[in-house]
Amino acid sequence: MLIKRPDDIAAAEITDESVYLGRRRLLRTLGLAGSALLVGCGQKQGNTDAKAETDSSPTLDLARKTDYANGEAQTSFKDATHYNNYYEFGTDKSDPAQNAGKFQPKPWSVEIAGHAEVTGSFTLEDILKGQSIEERVYRMRCVEGWSMVIPWAGFSLADLLKRFKPTAQAKYVAFTTVNRPAQMPGLSYAALDWPYREGLRIDEAMNPLALLATGMYGRELPNQNGAPLRLVLPWKYGFKGIKSIVKIEFVERQPRTSWNDAAANEYGFYSNVNPDVDHPRWSQKTERRIGAGGGLFAPRIETKPFNGYAEQVASLYAGMDLHQNF
Amino acid sequence: MWKPRDRAAALKPLVFLLCLAPIAWLLWRLLNNDLGADPVAELEHRSGDWALRFLLITLAMTPLRRITGWAQWIRFRRMLGLFVFFYASVHLAVYLSLDLQGLWTQIFAEIIKRPYITVGFSAWLLLLPLTITSTKGMMRRLGRNWGRLHKLIYLIGVLAVLHFYWLVKKDVREPLIYAAVLALLFALRLPWKRWLTAAKPAAAPRT
């Protein structure tokens, strides 16, 4: 299959990290001056937090940087790490950042099972061996009608899956999230049938856009965003991007997935971003971009089919009725 | 020493200021850019929270009168009720102007298509006649019908809780708390005393 991707952005167009951080510093200073003028009070807590977190987590070596978001303004690190859903740490969007501190993402191992020639338990180091980590800026669209632009760091899921030599029987790939009640306070409430599960058809999993992320914003993945290993599927709603993966299984039948189990009429197995298929509660026609400037009065953005990645993924669903297979 | 009646009058401005505290706090956070990653959603949710809370507080006045024996609770009821309308209107205004940003075709589609918006919007619409008829003059003019009309607040309470319940994706614990408080406030209105005293003579006809 021929897989199309947008022309890679010239290296010169990718913002250098020092410039990027410098810009953040400038904005911070301006923001500070602004709020000081406005209310005459000191530095905001939030800024210090975000700075401390970016500066303390180890920097990643990034082999390559590619912008798949057409240079759209990136969501701030603070917003992308302090506003998200990770129900294992609580159902409020501020819960993951607040409650993920106790979580231990190291050491880590991933079980590979099912229809593949190579199976067993692999340490994170095994998984990462030979993979060069690249940065990919993707749009992320949440089913709740908000979106972000995030510079992820990771590697192609296909590259990893091929190493285990899936057999012809492997029609789907099933993923499972870690289940550690002692470190994940949200697990005490059965919001979903734990552990969290997700799945893809194997050809979807092999699409070059499917990314196994190990970091974001040039740093290691924070606990609340799915450390140490999570999936990022920019053409699907955010919840398909399963976090803190402990098991990858090659299966013959379409696997059960947590949100599909919880409410099949609201969350399909595919969950491709589709402005024409509304969620019973949220219109999917437009979205609100989080933390990329504009603030309160930032205009709503029109949601695109496959979140704007149709060119790369639409062929996967040729001949399917996407109103049925939503 | 004040008479209880005077005390209620003196407390009114204080209660009024307290009722403004949530909106003042929201505005303060707005000016300080402290509404989090999604300020529109935050404004929407917090104003909605307070509309529902004021509704429950308003509904608490009648049972409080009965329980405490202090008749003056009722004198706060209209003001509290008007704050329900105020916060519900802020909630609706944020939704229409900041969230949907006047995308009128989408607004109408949303109100009709999404049950949680349909019931939420209905609750706001039903608050309108209660707000308009909240004056003394209207009370006089409507006579006995005023009381009948204002019983709509029970329906509004149910719709508001349902609005919250249907909006939540999966974790319904918070809307269930509001539902429980509403149910309690309804239960306190039932004529328990009459039932209990009515039951007595049958139990022990002493001579």
UniProtKB/TrEMBL annotation, chain A:
Keywords: Metal-binding, Molybdenum, Oxidoreductase, Signal
Record GO biological process: protein repair
Enzymatic class: oxidoreductase
Function: Part of the MsrPQ system that repairs oxidized periplasmic proteins containing methionine sulfoxide residues (Met-O), using respiratory chain electrons. Thus protects these proteins from oxidative-stress damage caused by reactive species of oxygen and chlorine generated by the host defense mechanisms. MsrPQ is essential for the maintenance of envelope integrity under bleach stress, rescuing a wide series of structurally unrelated periplasmic proteins from methionine oxidation.
Catalytically driven reaction(s): L-methionyl-[protein] + a quinone + H2O = L-methionyl-(S)-S-oxide-[protein] + a quinol; L-methionyl-[protein] + a quinone + H2O = L-methionyl-(R)-S-oxide-[protein] + a quinol
Gene that produces this protein: msrP
Official protein name in the record: Protein-methionine-sulfoxide reductase catalytic subunit MsrP
Domain Oxidoreductase molybdopterin-binding: 103-259
Domain of life the protein comes from: Bacteria
This enzyme's EC code(s): 1.8.5.-
InterPro entries: MsrP (IPR022867), OxRdtase_Mopterin-bd_dom (IPR000572), OxRdtase_Mopterin-bd_sf (IPR036374), TAT_signal (IPR006311)
Quaternary structure, from the entry: Heterodimer of a catalytic subunit (MsrP) and a heme-binding subunit (MsrQ).
PTM description: Predicted to be exported by the Tat system. The position of the signal peptide cleavage has not been experimentally proven.
From TrEMBL, chain B:
Self-association and partners: Heterodimer of a catalytic subunit (MsrP) and a heme-binding subunit (MsrQ).
Entry annotated with the keyword Metal-binding: yes
InterPro entries: Fe3_Rdtase_TM_dom, MsrQ-like
GO cellular component, one term: plasma membrane
Principal location class: membrane
Cofactors (names): FMN; heme b
GO BP annotation list: protein repair
Keywords assigned: Cell membrane, Electron transport, Flavoprotein, FMN, Heme, Iron, Membrane, Metal-binding, Transmembrane, Transmembrane helix, Transport
Ferric oxidoreductase domain ranges (all copies): 48-161
Name of the molecule in the record: Protein-methionine-sulfoxide reductase heme-binding subunit MsrQ
Membrane-topology annotation of the record: Multi-pass membrane protein
Family listed: Belongs to the MsrQ family.
Cofactor note: Binds 1 FMN per subunit. Binds 1 heme b (iron(II)-protoporphyrin IX) group per subunit.
Membrane spanning stretches: 9-30, 50-67, 79-96, 116-132, 152-169, 175-192
Compartments it resides in: Cell membrane; Membrane
Function: Part of the MsrPQ system that repairs oxidized periplasmic proteins containing methionine sulfoxide residues (Met-O), using respiratory chain electrons. Thus protects these proteins from oxidative-stress damage caused by reactive species of oxygen and chlorine generated by the host defense mechanisms. MsrPQ is essential for the maintenance of envelope integrity under bleach stress, rescuing a wide series of structurally unrelated periplasmic proteins from methionine oxidation.
Organism: Pseudolysobacter antarcticus
PANTHER family: PROTEIN-METHIONINE-SULFOXIDE REDUCTASE HEME-BINDING SUBUNIT MSRQ (PTHR36964:SF1)
UniProt keyword Transferase present: no
Gene Ontology molecular-function annotations: electron transfer activity; FMN binding; heme binding; metal ion binding; oxidoreductase activity, acting on diphenols and related substances as donors
Gene name per UniProt: msrQ
